[in-house]
Structure formats: structure tokens, C-alpha cells
Design goal:
- With 383 residues, this protein is an alpha/beta fold.
- The protein has two domains: 191 residues, Rossmann fold; 163 residues, Glycogen Phosphorylase B (Rossmann fold), CATH 3.40.50.
- Helix content is 40%, strand content 15%.
- The protein has 14 helices and 13 strands.
- Strands 3-2-1-4-5-6-7 form a seven-stranded parallel beta sheet, sandwiched between helices. The protein has a six-stranded parallel beta sheet with strand order 10-9-8-11-12-13, sandwiched between helices.
- Helix 12 links the parallel strand 12 and strand 13.
- The relative contact order is 0.13.
- About 2% of the residues have low confidence.
């Protein structure tokens, strides 16, 4: 075990579970390292977002799990439980991902920040002018005051270097692998599929309903396929239906479904338990990832881990990620994906394929191990 304590801070929320799963994946990946290389982790979470019960599947893999309120030095009459106070109390030498934009006035913790992507540089229309200004100011302060700034791919590293003169020395690339959870392969996914009243054969896209995720284009593809005679096709979507930037977006999509009579072809599940999501992905005939922009697609990593057939948007990050069993398509051309699916549908097999899962499991464990080792190396070089 490392003698230095690493503070992991859960950046997720109930509306953004990807950040929550990212941290749990890091914890599990660290547990795969040899004893003498394993980091000693203290996990911190926002008390108004999660409870200690949300970490029951990893509690034995960390030194301590601690709730906090707020970030900076406490006002005594309000709270003595800020993150900074808890970091000091638990003697954390490194913090990741650091939510602080200032540099602490003492020697520890060393700060490793995380920038998921630079999407606003490519799709400014998805952001307000105020949000872009805040985002750029925040990123600039991270590069100024963090010891290391992590990005998820080489594409983002180039963006970082173009964005800040400080990035060349501070930026590190850490591709992620998402943990599927304990005993993910044991349940019979057929029971979960029945519980959600889904047909045996369906496509799945689990993602938040944010504009850049490109649900609208995908819905247009389903409409085209039904018009071409593929009346039985079913697309299943799970994930939060709220886009704080565009509150009307989900309603507009539902109007499209109604106007095109797609109620029997598109099923919106909303937020569902993580365990159920994994089982529905296992049972899908294929996974669709139509996103216009990603830092590093957790969905493609999950599909790889499950040995699933994937149809992914042809964007630089997805090419760099190089998913298995993948067909790329133009994310701005509904006809391209419609033709791909029309040709593939007859040969797509529903349900979990035991042999594909066994083969994928080997790669999955290796990717998790490398994720943990790469993170350890970043932490060690920070000290």
C-alpha cells in the first residue's frame, strides 16, 4: 500500500451520474493493482447529492468515505465540514479531480484537475455566452493553479495546449474505462427486459438528453427506417431527460415522436438504476452512440466490455478510442446511419452472447488495470 493518502472527490450528481461512475471506476481499477502499488484512497462526496449507501459496492476498497458541505474554509457557525477541512483532517496529499481554482496556501494537497472536454470551442451554439466565459475563465484558473490537469484523450490534449501556454508542462492524458459493477454478468438480462416491457430485439442509446448527444438525429433515423418498412425496429433510451441549457429540448423530441407516430418504436426510460442499465445493454441487439462531441465515451467502453456491436458517430475522439465491433457513421447525415442499420438489422442478434462476453471480459479487466496504473503514475509524479 502507498503511505500517501489520495483524496478522490466525486464530481457527479443525480443529474450527471457519469461523474459518479467515473470515480467508482477509479476506485475499482486501483484495487486491481498489486498491494505494493495500490493507492490509499479517501473518497469524498457531496452530502446533498449522494449518501454513503451509494458507495456500498466499493466501501471495502477505500480507506474512508467522507461527506462534505461546500469547498472552502468553513464559517464556524455554519459548518465545519467543508472539503478543505476534511482533506486536512484526513491528511490527503493529492486530490482528484480538484474542484479548487485557487492554489492552497499550504504544501498539500497537491491538486490534479480534470477537464472533460473543450466542446464549447467546437459547438458554441450549445452554450450561452455567459457559460462560455465562465468555462474559459475556470479552465484558465485550473491551468494556472493546478499541479496537473488531466484530459481524457490526445485530441483534448491538443486543445489544451492551444488553450493555455501552461498546458504543455501540466497536461496529462488519462483514458477512462467504466466499471460495470459487481457481478454484472450473473443476472439473466431477459428478466430485466421483461420488467421494462421491451421486445426481444431492440437498439439502445443510454445517455443524458443533452443537445450534443444528438438524440434528434437518431430519432430521425428511426422515422426513416419505419418509412422504409422496418416497422418492428425499437430504440430504447435511458438517462436524465433534463438539459439545463435547453429545458424545452425533451419536449421537442417528444413532439417529434408523436408527430411521426413513433410511440411503438422509441421508448424513453429516463433515469434507471445502474444495474438495470447494464443488463439492458447486455440484452440489446446493438448500441448506438451518435454524439457530436465527447471527451472519452464511457458508452463505447461499456459496449467494448460487454462485447456488443456498436454504431458510433465518426468523430475524432471515437476514432481514437477505436471501439471493437464498430460501424462508424456521419453524425450529421441521418441517411448514412439509416442505411447502415437497414442493412445490419436482419443479422443483429438480441440478447447477451456468452462467448463474446467472455472474450470481452479479458480486455475489460486489462483496460481497468491500465486505467488504475496510469492514474497511480500521475499521482506518484505529483508528490
Amino acid at each position: 500500500m502507498s503511505s500517501e493518502v489520495i483524496g478522490l472527490v466525486d464530481p457527479g450528481s443525480r443529474d450527471w451520474l457519469a461523474g459518479h461512475i467515473y470515480i467508482k471506476s477509479l476506485v475499482y481499477a486501483n484495487s486491481l493493482l498489486p498491494d505494493d502499488q495500490r493507492l490509499e484512497i479517501c473518497l469524498f462526496y457531496k452530502g446533498n447529492s449522494f449518501s454513503v449507501n451509494d458507495y456500498k459496492d466499493i466501501h471495502t476498497l477505500v480507506k474512508k468515505i467522507v461527506a462534505f458541505e461546500g469547498l472552502s474554509e468553513p464559517i464556524p457557525e455554519v459548518s465545519d465540514n467543508t472539503l478543505l477541512t476534511q482533506l486536512r483532517k484526513n491528511e490527503c496529499r493529492v486530490i482528484f479531480p480538484s474542484p479548487f481554482t485557487h492554489k492552497p496556501e499550504f504544501d498539500y494537497p497537491r491538486t490534479i484537475s480534470w477537464i472533460p472536454d473543450f466542446q464549447h470551442l467546437y459547438y458554441p451554439q450549445f452554450f450561452s455566452e455567459k457559460e462560455i466565459a465562465i468555462r474559459e475563465s475556470h479552465y484558465a484558473m485550473l491551468f494556472e493553479n493546478s499541479d496537473i490537469v488531466v484530459v481524457s484523450n490526445e485530441f483534448s490534449k491538443k486543445d489544451a495546449i492551444n488553450f493555455s501556454s501552461l498546458a504543455e508542462k501540466k497536461v496529462r492524458v488519462l483514458p477512462l474505462t467504466f466499471w460495470l459493477g459487481k457481478d454484472w454478468s450473473r443476472p439473466e438480462c431477459g428478466e430485466i427486459i421483461k420488467n421494462f416491457q421491451l421486445p426481444d430485439k431492440y437498439l439502445m442509446f443510454p445517455a443524458q438528453f443533452w443537445l450534443h448527444k444528438n438524440h434528434r438525429m437518431l430519432f430521425e433515423v428511426i422515422a426513416k427506417l419505419t418509412q422504409k418498412g422496418l416497422k418492428e425496429i425499437m430504440l430504447v433510451c435511458s438517462g436524465s431527460t433534463d438539459d439545463y441549457r435547453h429545458p424545452a429540448y425533451h419536449g421537442e423530441l417528444m413532439n417529434f415522436v408523436g408527430d411521426n407516430k413513433l410511440q411503438n418504436n422509441i421508448k424513453i426510460l429516463g433515469l434507471i438504476p445502474r444495474e438495470d442499465q447494464v443488463q439492458l445493454m447486455r440484452g440489446a441487439a446493438a448500441i448506438i452512440q451518435p454524439s457530436l462531441f465527447e471527451g472519452w465515451s464511457a458508452l463505447l467502453e461499456e459496449a467494448r466490455a460487454l462485447g456488443k456491436q456498436v454504431f458510433a458517430s465518426d468523430i475524432p475522439m471515437h476514432r481514437e478510442q477505436n471501439p471493437d465491433h464498430c460501424t462508424f457513421f456521419n453524425p450529421t447525415d441521418p441517411d448514412d446511419l439509416a442505411n447502415c442499420l437497414l442493412n445490419a438489422w436482419p443479422n443483429l442478434k438480441p440478447g447477451a452472447d456468452a462467448s463474446e462476453e467472455r472474450e470481452a471480459e479479458i480486455k475489460y479487466q486489462d483496460h481497468l488495470y491500465r486505467f488504475g496504473k496510469a492514474f497511480r503514475n500521475i499521482c506518484v509524479t505529483t508528490l
